[in-house]
Each structure stands twice: as structure tokens, then as C-alpha cells.
């Protein structure tokens, strides 16, 4: 948890909807440990949309969310970007988890450009 997300609630996002534009460099032992935690949590974990972070098997991932407005024949679309949390996201992927707990930070296109540079235009125009 970062200082920016300390007071942000958890939203459950489909893992398939999270874009990871930066290739992760993983510590495999860390990912495997997280996979084990997901498979055998200390207490039986049950998904609840209103769960707080203390009730999830792994800490929530931070997600930058950009809402592309409808324009020029393109429909409105929501893009969810994860710049970090690579070990947790890899563990969720290997565990075939459908939804992950996320702390969503809404961003503008110019804010997203600070992370992705000029390539953001190509990504959000798709």
C-alpha cells in the first residue's frame, strides 16, 4: 500500500482487463510463494465485493484507470493499467484468478503519458 492509496477503497477488476505495458522482471520464488498463499490462505477466503484489504489473500494492486471518451466513431472505453504489482499479478494469473482486488486511481491522458510517454496514444486509440 502506498501513501497515495491508503484511503482508496478496493474495487474488484477482471484480471483480463488489466493492461501491463511494462514487461515484468520476476523473482520466481516470490511469485510461487504468492501462488501458495492464494491456493492455501490461512483462513478460508470468500470473495466479497465490499471486502477491505485486510480480508484479501494478497494486498490489492494499484491500477491507473483512464476513461477514453466517445469520439470520432470510437465508443467510450475504460483502460486499466498496472505499472507495478508484477509479482501479485503473475501469481493471480498462474492461479487462474478471474477478479483481483485493486485500488483504482483515475487518471487523465496527460497523467498517463508521464508513465508511458508517446506510446500511450497508440494504446488508447485501439
CATH class: Alpha Beta
Class of secondary structure makeup = alpha/beta
Per CATH, the superfamily is: Conserved hypothetical protein from pyrococcus furiosus pfu- 392566-001, ParB domain
Note the run of SSEs as H and E: EEHEEHEHH
Count of helix runs: 4
The amount of beta strand, in percent, is: 15-25%
Architecture per CATH nomenclature, i.e. the level-2 architecture: Alpha-Beta Complex
The helicity comes to: 25-40%
What is the overall shape? Answer: globular
Mean pLDDT: 84
The count of strands amounts to 5
What does the main sheet amount to? 5 strands, mixed
Radius of gyration: 16 Å
The strand line-up of the biggest sheet is 1-5-3-4-2
Compute the number of structural domains: 1
How far apart lie the N and C ends?
31 Å
Q: Which consecutive residue ranges, at least 5 long each, have pLDDT under 50?
A: none
Domain ParB-like N-terminal: 11-119
Pfam families: ParB_N
GO molecular function: ATP binding; sulfiredoxin activity
Protein name: Sulfiredoxin
Describe the structure.
It holds the Pfam family ParB_N. GO terms for molecular function: ATP binding; sulfiredoxin activity. It comes from Xylona heveae (strain CBS 132557 / TC161). With 126 residues, the protein is an alpha/beta fold. The chain has one domain: Conserved hypothetical protein from pyrococcus furiosus pfu- 392566-001, ParB domain (Alpha-Beta Complex). The protein is 28% helix and 22% strand. The chain has 4 helices and 5 strands; from the N terminus they run ββαββαβαα. The chain has helices at 28-39, 86-94, 109-116, 119-124; strands at residues 10-14, 18-19, 61-68, 77-81, 99-106. α1 (28-39) packs across α2 (86-94). The termini are far apart. The model has no long low-confidence stretch (mean pLDDT 84).
